[in-house]
Amino acid sequence: MPKLPAPPIPSALKGPPPRPGEDNGNAPGPAEHAGNAGISVVDWVDERTSLSGAARWLMFRKVPKGTNWYYTLGSATLFAFLSQAVTGVFLAMYYRPDASGGAYESIRYVTNDVFLGQFVRGMHKWGASVMVVLVFLHMGRTFFFGAYKYPRELNWVIGVVLLVLTLVMGFTGYLLPFDQRAYWATIVGVQINSTGPLIGPYLSDFLLGGSEFNATTLTRFYAIHMLIVPGLLAALIGAHLYLVTKLGTTAPPWTKVEKRSELREAEV
Amino acid sequence: MSDKHAQYKSKYTLDRQIPGAFEGETITRRRFMTVTANAAGAVAAGAFVLPALGFAIGPIFKNITHRWETVGTVDQFPDNNYVPVILTLVPGLGEAGKTTVYMRKFNPAIDVDRYDRGTPYIAITTKCSHVGCPVRWIPAAERFVCPCHGGVYDLLGRVVSGPPVRPLDRFYTRVVGEYVQVGSRFSVNSELKRFSPRFSGEPLDGIGQYAYPSRPDARK
Asked: Residue A129 is part of which domain span?
């Protein structure tokens, strides 16, 4: 990149010109050294992995004319998920899935005694609602912009699975504080599952880990909430993003197709 | 995998002029290795997937131990009103494993249904048959009322109004000496016919008993 000319400095302020053989003022400074070191580290990794091509493919994409703020709802959902993941990991450092009182006590401890505990738990709790809302807004944008149409049907299907998994996260996470609201909401939710014909009773049995709410129900919900579903979510988000990158985004439905000028002339 | 030697009719590799083939050999080595490697992978994956699945699904098929719990003495319960008792459904779970059960002495004037004959005490669950909220006995109205969605049941636990799909579940009772004991739960349909225990929200009239099967081990 061409350098801008240095601003003029009065000759009185300039020192004497360097003698031949001395430092002529163009030797690389520490910042330049640090920059070069960074570049050579990246080069070293890239030479062995060829990751820069993938990064360029992922990040420097063409977007259609008319792309607007509604197109950021997917990224917003992604960041809500990341926020849930990070706060969830830190909550797991304190949480005890112990149905005979330990679970409630550990949540009480996080909320009342841990430094910033109430804040981090609040982020996780309210962030869950935010994520569900964002998922639906993102889904609505995709629907109303017709972005689910060929060739993006598979991405819509993956998105619906992600929606269901997000709701599963909400359902299983609701039990973990193990207070009265959590307990009864779970009883009701599991019984609603059982009203599906034929498979319903077995689904409820699987969720409860038995015929009644018991000690393994909480640990079961805990494992689903923090191991099974987050893994599936992360994997499917990866697939979702791959397809977005591969197929590109759609133009808004109100965008007109621009005719090239020579074609327009030919029509006349 | 496409077999280059498919144009030969014979299945014997020697006939198909595959180099190094043995007399009577019917499978190419490449194909044998593919099948073997895939089979080994399947066995290795099954070795951890099957036990894990069984571990997660196993509790469905676990036998329920039938326990009898003493809840009071024989003279503690009237025959025209319900008395709440605390019953431990799941041991070792503290308060979350307990439930309230409404108890009443058998009353030949009220309990005229043939399925109730021989029951010393009537024990009715507090778990609403809609989605499992706790119902409360209102003595003045002689009704069980659910706070969640307005289910109402009569003195015998039959649905009077609201969304519930079947009467309130009951428990087996027996008298040992001068003590009353409560056993396992069972479900009843609208004629108070007894069925093995079901979850809430599962109707037992008509096709319901077949559409909502009970736990395999809980069937009589």
From this structure: 68-177+215-247
Q: Is the pLDDT of residue B17 over 90?
A: no
- The DSSP code sequence of A154-198 is HHHHHHHHHHHHHHHHHHHHHHTT-SHHHHHHHHHHHHHHHTSTT
Domain with A134 in it: what CATH number?
1.20.810.10
How many structural domains is chain B composed of?
A: 2
Residue range A85-109: mean pLDDT, rounded: 93
- Listed by number, the residues of chain B in 159-188 with a beta carbon closer than 8 Å to a beta carbon of chain A are none
Residue of A nearest to B134 (CA): A184
By the 10 Å C-beta count (0-12 exposed, 13-18 middle, 19+ buried), A178 is classed as: buried
pLDDT over 70 (residue B219): no
How far apart CA A34 and CA A40 sit, in angstroms, is: 10
Which residues are bridge partners to B179 per DSSP? B73, B176
Using the Cβ of B212 and the Cβ atoms of chain A, whether some distance falls under 8 Å is answered with yes
3-state secondary structure of B8: coil
Q: Which of B183, B127, B15 is nearest to A183 (CA)?
A: B127
A219 inside 8 A of chain B by CB: no
Residue of A nearest to B214 (CA): A201
Same domain as B42, residue B76? no
Q: Pick from A154, A148, A162: which is nearest to A249 by CA?
A: A148
Please report, for chain B, how many H helices and E strands are present, in that order.
2, 11
Tokens of B31: 């194909």
* Spatial separation of the C-alpha atoms in residues B219 and B29, rounded to whole Å: 53
Note whether B90 contacts A197, CB cutoff 8 Å.
Answer: no
Q: Does B89 touch chain A (CB under 8 A)?
A: yes
Q: Do B202 and A195 touch (CB under 8 A)?
A: yes
Domain housing B112: 69-218
Q: pLDDT value at position A117?
A: 94
pTM: 0.80
**Which of B89, B96, B202 is the closest to A194 by Cβ?**
B202
The domain that contains B148 carries what CATH number?
A: 2.102.10.10
Predicted ipTM of the assembly: 0.75
Q: Does B121 share its domain with B193?
A: yes
Question: Taking CA atoms, what residue in B is nearest to A213?
Answer: B97
* Strand extents, DSSP E, chain B: 69-73, 83-88, 98-105, 121-125, 136-138, 143-145, 152-153, 159-161, 170-176, 179-188, 194-195
